[in-house]
């Protein structure tokens, strides 16, 4: 309404009605004055009398809106004046302004970049209907929490209509061989129950989605729903894709629909390219790694649903849903629990969530440190303007006006840095995502600027501006007009306590960041120094998958032998082999064992990990044979069964005894010691570098049934990555139906296992170095300001005979005392917060004495170097000149 009246007055002025408006305004003012005077005579205070007059007057022509609009207009005019004055001031000091803007941009940019990752992993809801009522059903026991489920239990949950509005079962997306128009490629495929899309409330962008009638293969050709990105990349967005047939798992599937671009599935960070229905009747009661999700029924709370599902779970187990031992039930099947699926399934959150949260805390501390540093600069700037502020107050400006001017300066430059920081955040977040290993299905972690990220950037900008302005604004409340005018153009000593607080804050925060950086760097170094048991350099690995082909048994074994022979014949290849689980692999294969004459102390001792390997495995991967021999081409199907054991296995089962020549059995149904131990190999790390090497058995591939997916490896004389095209060409030349995936060097696989540690070490080291730089700049600035305020005192002391060493001690004493106090405060803060890093450290304690001692020495050295330069310069004063100008 007030803007309408402002526009009305403007139009009337342009039309020549200014005199009429002035007369109307005069009449209104006259009547308001009379009415207000009447209410005042009646005993009302003047402000209440004016409001009562307005109400009685009826505001026929929008007086109230004009009054409000006039105050708003004046406010905008004053704000514009403040901003113009600030801009002129920064134009006179462009270097200072540019340094401050870049500092704020780096602080806000790094914080917003890490927050965008945190938002994508934790805060952003999955693009489904009402995600707040979506929960994952987990079973728990003494061994932890597990997500596996059976189809029968899923049906049991779905039948509880009093608690559940819908339920679904989903096999996580994983790379699978898909044949389109006769060409095989890998795509992330997930299997879902028939009510997957209905429960989620996801509609198709094209065609239809999977329905309950599709779930059990009821139609002649099974159906498939494509993800939008896969449809665009593979089929060019062709609407005629409906009805086409693709081959998945050696079965024809008819494409019936395409999902919208916003729906990627339920795995945050993973994109489902193809979705097909699962067949629950194949494995009705077998516990598989499937996610079981449910949607709460209306007016049912989470606690009520959890209680009801617990009773349903116990009833399901009592009915014999899955035969299991008492130990298994106590370990994993004591009860069920509900976990919120607001932000989808937790694969990426479990893998990177802790690292992202720690990184967010580090950049948050760095942002606070930057604010303290900039506050020192603005405080010094405000202290240097004491004479100007005194003149302004002498001419009639009040302290509120001065405070608003200082606040507008800091907010103006903070907004400029914030805008630049958000741009930096977009690039930085994508760079961090690019560092994540692209293992398995396509990585689809959206880190773009949504509303939450932009609000975070805006809040960080405003809080940064406010934090920077606190000390300078407080300084304006203590401007002494008489003292400032009497000092002329000379500086006035003010803000000493604020400077000391800021320097302690800066050095303390820097100490905390440096301690965290050193702990994480020590962790990375310890992990890299771990004995891996193999030589990663020079090795190229790839997965050759025969899934979906007609190759099996002896024919598949012959194909593997042909691929191996051709790989060995490639120029530059020194060794070649294949295995079901290469070093650092995750393909666990536990088998029951029996050793004549050995009694197992626990049921876990009866299960060992088995690796099926081809000839040349130990030579290709550089695994040492400590005793005996390795697996050779002579260990064929007609030869005596042999096995090579790891050192930890030999030490555990044969303490003080030579295991070479001893016999054992592997797998169910074997007795009598059919397999002879012919060698002992060095322990090799698998899966996780933080865990000890597993006790491993190496069996010849020629003496076992061939696996569909086999990992081939070659050791080359030069760069192994240069052989990538040649090795894939060999596989296609042997059989074009084979799918080759995950072609990468073993060194890259090793680095991927350390991705969390490398990211944290890199970020913390970078921010720690930046913290040291900011601390040095802060100490330098504060000491320079402090000694400049004592120039007259130093001149007088020199005139009275004080030496330069005495002046240096006077200048450094107070500064180094503050630095020492700050280091102690920072070390104490780091010790209290060390529990947050405990789970990320490896072979280093959160309170490692040498880390704290080294950090203290570094900070004290930085503080000494930063303080000695301005102090030495001040000690070289000319007493005659100083006393003459003081």
Automatic annotation (TrEMBL):
Residues 100-311, 504-716 form the MacB-like periplasmic core domain. It is found in: Cell membrane. GO terms for cellular component: plasma membrane. This is Macrolide export ATP-binding/permease protein MacB. Its EC number is 3.6.3.-. It is a multi-pass membrane protein. The gene is macB_27. InterPro entries: ABC3_permease_C, ADOP, MacB_PCD, Macrolide_Exporter_MacB, Perm_prefix_1.
